[in-house]
Specification:
- The complex is a heterodimer.
- Chain A is 37% helix and 23% strand.
- In chain A, β4 (56-61) and β5 (64-65) form a beta hairpin.
- Chain A has a domain at 2-89 and 165-257: P-loop containing nucleotide triphosphate hydrolases (Rossmann fold, 3-Layer(aba) Sandwich), CATH 3.40.50.
- The longest helix of chain A has 16 residues, at 178-193.
- By secondary structure, chain A is of the alpha/beta class.
- Chain A contains ten helices and ten strands.
- The two termini of chain A are 33 Å apart.
- By secondary structure, chain B is of the alpha+beta class.
- Chain B folds into three domains: 11-137, no CATH class; 165-301, Immunoglobulin-like (Sandwich); 305-508, MetI-like (MetI-like fold), CATH 1.10.3720.
- In chain B, 56% of the residues lie in helices and 14% in strands.
- Chain B has helices at 20-29, 33-37, 41-65, 72-82, 84-108, 118-134, 139-144, 146-157, 305-338, 348-365, 369-380, 384-408, 412-420, 425-459, 467-476, 480-508, and strands at 164-179, 198-202, 210-211, 217-218, 222-228, 235-241, 247-249, 251-252, 255-256, 258-260, 267-272, 286-303.
- In chain B, α4 (72-82) crosses α5 (84-108), α12 (384-408) packs across α14 and α14 packs antiparallel against α16 (480-508).
- Classes of the chains: A alpha/beta, B alpha+beta.
- The interface between A and B is medium-sized, with 36 and 21 residues.
Amino acid sequence: MLEIRNLTKIYDDGTVALKNVSFTVEQGEFLIIIGLSGSGKSTLLRCINRLIDPTEGQIIWDGVDITAAESAELRTVRRQIGMIFQHFNLVKRSSVMTNVLAGRLGYADPWQSLWHRFSPQDRELAIKALGRVGISDQANKRADELSGGQQQRVGIARALMQEPRMILADEPVASLDPVLAHTILGDLDQLNKEGMTILCSLHYLDLVQRYASRVIGLKDGEIVYRGSRADIRAMTDEQFKQVYGAEAIRVAAGLEGSLG
Amino acid sequence: MANNTNSKAAKPEKRSLVSPVVAAVASLILPGLGQMLARRFRRGLIVFASVASITGLIWWLFVDLSRSAQGIGLMLTKSLRRAPGFVILVLVGLVVLWLLNVWDAYRETQTRHRADPTVFILIGIVFFVLGWQISQIDPVTAVVELPDAWPPLSKVLWPWEAAFERDTDVLAASADILTPCDDEPPPEAPEKVEGEPYMVASPTCGDLTELDENNQPVLGTTLHLSASGFAPNTETFIFWIDPIGQEFRIRQEGAYISVMTEADGTFEYDVTMPYRLTPPSAEGRQIHEIEARQITEVGGLKPSEPLRLTMARMVETIFLGMMATIFGIILAIPVSFLAARNMMSGSFLSIALYYLSRTVLNIIRSIEPLIWALIAVVWVGLGPFAGIIALTIHSVASLGKLYSEAIESIDPGPIEAIQATGATRLQTIVYAVIPQMIPPFVSFSIYRWDINVRMSTVIGLVGGGGIGFLLVQYIKLLDYRAAGIAVWFIAITVAILDNVSSEIRQRFI
């Protein structure tokens, strides 16, 4: 459903974030991208929904090249792709409900929505989305009153409001403790089992091994590793070293040891 | 490494180019030169610039003090006579500074020595003495004349006696007086009406007091007044009204005349006809009038005119500040988006627009509201509208800057998240930018309202309406009680507003 062809991103200051990256994502996959900070994971995810414009290459969504899509076309593509973030990116002073409803903006009437007017169906959908991530009782609180885990669930609910066909998750658990990390990824896993395609960047190897159906490893903007579910479970230290570099090996080994 | 004097590591080893004695002599000839030769270039430059400007200022002050006397000697003696303390102090200071500069140059040639700020301290002291003279500081006058400040000050500090007044009721009766007496019959006594005050003068003609060639008064005719029908046991004032209707209270031996009425409301009194300067054209018969007047206060206390005017102007002032703030906010919002880097980083055009709006805002902001008010007064004339224009212009500039900084410091995360949902640009602003801006926005706006009301109290000084306009008028009329009422109202209003605004701001953050 998504195909990335020879994607290259060079920032204005000359930083090369992505170098000739190509891969495809099939319907129903839980594709995890691993790599160090600065390896280009975030840039890659943001190129897919065009929050960042790639320098070269193509993004093909459902067989349509959206690399140069503009305005209405771009918004139509974006609303099919939900996104959740490391720092949740909620509007802290707004209510949970408003944050979730904001996920519907791509469908809502552009002028009506400016006055926070949403259709009753949209509101119903928002309550359902909150129920799905188990925080429907928090709907009227301010977003910053919630704990980190709850905030990320609001983020997921907001993404669900888009009724997306794919969810991009940019380090969704990096600011959460390990227990919460498991529950959040559990939520994503549940969605995946219900048929949602998920593209997620992660740091922790144990989580990768547990949830990924396929893995891509990025290093300095290049794909240095591709592996199936079986491959990642059998991932060797050498392969890991390729992705994470020499210093990271021990952390990774430690994590591997903690695998349940 | 040792040869590379520019590198940081080599800095402490910077050697003097000349020996201590040469440096000292150089500084004796030209202050600071020795230090420069000792490779303390900046120190030398500061010393030179200071000594040069001090010498120049002393020269200028001496020329001023000696009223441009010719010749240095004459100038010195004349200045010395007019301001001996200053002249001696400043000359000694200059000489000591010059010598200290020589010693400083000598010391600076040595590579290892402690940092010595003496020469800079002395420069500071000499500038202080010069500043004292130039700004005409005069504590002696301030102390000696202090008692003169007390009467107006006490009125300003406690003006409330003038804040309330009562209505007055006037009982008056008058009689016509002819001057000079002639063949025609003199004016007749007025008709007596029962229940109203009544006064007769006798005679009903006579001569006014005049001045002889030595300016000595030649007393005029004495009139006997007998009156009835006045309020009993009440002070009564005697007025003289000349043929063109000008009236004044009659004085005798320097004091105003006032008569106490008897228990039956009557009085008898002798008055000498007063001095009136009559124009040469006023020859011949003139009918003057003498009037007895009782003024009694009736009814309850009511606000005096200054109090009523002050309250009206204060309301005007508060609204002036409010309107200026509202206009300022409305105009500053679009401007602030233009002046926010993160909103304008799209294309070359938008970046150019960003720099343009930043520059314009900075220029406008650097001009004080009082100056804008002067311009606005020329534009729309005196009054509060001019003040509103002035404050609005300044508010747009300062709010525009504060808002744009608030926009620049917002979290980009939510913007990204809302964009990712397929929202339009406008939706993104409404859902991700505005909610984040509300706290700083409210805080800055209220703060600005606070400033604007405070500014509007003085914007009237230059004709921009509001209470300042009234205050400056009262001060010019030497009506210190009325001015005091205005000052009190300003202080109370600003204090209340200060508290209210800080309270609101705290709630919003």
